[in-house]
Write a structure and sequence with these properties.
By secondary structure, this protein is an alpha+beta fold. Helices cover about 20% and strands about 30% of the residues. The strands form three sheets. An eight-stranded mixed β-sheet has the order 9-8-5-4-3-2-1-16. The chain has a six-stranded mixed β-sheet with strand order 10-11-12-13-14-15, with no helix packed on it. It has a single domain, classed as Ribonuclease Z/Hydroxyacylglutathione hydrolase-like (Metallo-beta-lactamase, Chain A). The two termini are about 15 Å apart. The longest helix has 14 residues, at about 245-260. It has seven helices and 16 strands. The radius of gyration is 18 Å and the shape is globular. Strand 11 (about 210-215) and strand 12 (about 215-220) form a beta hairpin. The chain has helices at about 35-45, 100-105, 150-160, 165-170, 175, 230-235, 245-260; strands at about 5-10, 10-25, 60-70, 75, 115, 130-135, 135-140, 145-150, 180-185, 195-200, 210-215, 215-220, 265, 275-280, 290, 295.
């Protein structure tokens, strides 16, 4: 069993519980970017290589849940792909992975989670909202309130998934029907915790990032506003999965300007160290780099 690791932010711990960690072809996210193109960007931003991209031009990526534990409140941010779910993506179809066992081994049995936050309602961020029990989709976290940004919830309630998956039906609607869902504004603050939403639209209409502030320190979980730190080296490069590519690029610029003063930035899908601090790069305004920060042993 791998030892549990976490980032410490003031009194808060942020623990990654990884469902899948892999190398990813850049063409999965960016239709016009080859592995050679990745290496060309990395030649101009050498901090990428070895930390966030490999020597062959693949992206280092994860699907993970990030569990915040602060002041007696436990919040699970993004719940991965999930098991037993029919999905168009063959790599995500009808998975049978040990995520729940890994979550418990990290010290977080499902009934100990107080809130579940989904940065947005794409397939790889909501899957473990529910689990299959006797042929029915039941909420995985029975003691939690599930916090959905209202514009995000309402958009996907009315909009079919582009891949044809019934992700709302199997991973969101059962939670709502069980009375566990709270539809909240995009600047919501989690009750009893130093955790708040930061509106970061573009990837989806109601996308939010999650800010943790404790004892004078601050961290932020990006969601899919930054899929990979390559988008920090090349900030205008939006993913083909972005709902509004220009808005997504504008949001990244604004985000980097806000969180480039020593804050810890944790990428929901960033592999390698998984996080870093944003610093200015070069002499021109609007150029940034990442100083990698890996999670340390959890106490």
């Amino acid at each position: 069993m791998t030892a549990t690791t976490a980032w410490q932010v003031g009194r808060a711990t942020i623990t990654p519980v990884i469902e899948v960690e892999t190398i990813t072809s850049p063409r999965f996210l960016f239709k016009d970017l080859s592995k050679t193109g990745v290496l060309d960007i990395a030649s101009r931003a050498p901090w990428l290589r070895g930390s966030f991209v490999d020597d062959d031009g693949y992206l280092l990526q994860r699907v993970q849940c990030l569990v915040i534990d602060v002041d007696g409140v436990r919040v699970a941010v993004d719940t991965c792909v999930g098991n037993d779910k029919p999905r168009a993506n063959p790599g995500w179809n009808n998975l049978h992975l040990p995520f729940l066992a890994d979550l418990e081994a990290a010290g977080f049995p499902p009934d100990s989670i107080d809130a579940v936050v989904c940065t947005h309602l794409h397939v790889d961020h909501i899957g473990w909202n529910t689990m299959l029990v006797d042929g029915r989709w039941e909420p995985t976290f029975p003691s939690a309130r599930y916090l959905f940004a209202r514009p995000e919830f309402e958009y996907w309630q009315a909009t079919p998934d582009p891949a044809g998956d019934d992700i709302f039906g199997d991973s969101v609607a059962p939670v709502h029907e069980a009375g566990l869902a709270d539809l909240v504004p995009v600047d919501h603050t989690v009750d009893g915790a130093s955790i708040r939403f930061d509106s970061t639209p573009g990837h989806t209409p109601g996308h939010v990032s999650v800010v943790i502030e404790s004892a004078g320190e601050r961290a932020v979980i990006t969601g899919d506003m930054i899929h990979t730190p390559l988008q920090i080296a090349d900030v205008g490069r939006s993913s083909m999965f972005d709902y509004d590519q220009q808005a997504a690029a504008d949001t990244r610029v604004s985000f980097l300007e806000r969180y480039s003063d020593g804050d810890l930035v944790i990428g929901t899908h960033w592999g390698g160290p998984g996080a870093g601090r944003i610093v200015a790069a070069g002499d021109s305004a609007g150029e940034w780099a990442v100083e990698p920060v890996a999670a340390g042993p959890s106490s």
